[in-house]
Amino acid sequence: MNFLDAVPAVRRIDTDRDDLFAVDIVGHVAAADAENLFGLLEAAYALHPRLDVLVRLIDHDGVDWSHVSDETARQGTAHALEHIRRCAAVGDPDWIPYAQGFFATPPPFELRHFDWEDEAAAWRWLGARPTGRS
């Protein structure tokens, strides 16, 4: 294992909206990264009962879902249904159909995919802009 193996796949993006949860997801998402993402979302839900979400996929290489606890996945899905208003995904692959498959019925929030060249449109759709990286 080299030092790059420990780099988190989930990185927060600072924005000009407190009720927007924005992250970069880089490379392969290990189970620990997925658990961390769910924890970050839980903290955001505690501060804001309703959120918009923006996910930028950078060199995305899959997720180790088999190593994420079933309870975490169940809670993550249930809480997304309760708290998320809109979700924009930027980059490849277009994982919107896969994300929709997480839910027993179509989610009550909007999911939209944007290609990299349309990233500015994703930020406009959410009425926000990035202000830096944390």
How is the secondary structure organized here?
Layout: E1 10-15, E2 20-26, H1 31-47, E3 51-58, H2 70-83, E4 84-91, H3 96-100, E5 110-114, H4 119-125, E6 130-133
Parallel strand pairs: 2-3, 3-4, 4-5
Antiparallel strand pairs: 1-2, 1-6
Helix pairs in contact: 1-2
Task: Give an overview in words.
With 134 residues, the chain is of the alpha/beta class. 32% of the residues lie in helices and 28% in strands. The protein has helices at 31-47, 70-83, 96-100, 119-125; strands spanning 10-15, 20-26, 51-58, 84-91, 110-114, 130-133. The chain has a six-stranded mixed beta sheet, sandwiched between helices. 22% of the residues are buried.
Biggest β-sheet: count, sense, barrel? 6 strands, mixed
Instruction: Briefly note the structural class of the backbone.
Output: alpha/beta
Distance between the termini: 26 Å
Q: Can you tell me the number of structural domains?
A: 1
Question: What are the low-pLDDT stretches, counting only 5+ consecutive residues below 50?
Answer: none
Pfam family, one: SpoIIAA-like
Protein name: STAS/SEC14 domain-containing protein
InterPro entries: SpoIIAA-like, SpoIIAA-like_sf, STAS_dom_sf
Properties at a glance:
134 residues; alpha/beta; Transcription Regulator spoIIAA; 4 helices; 6 strands; 28% strand; globular
Short description, anyone?
The protein is of the alpha/beta class.
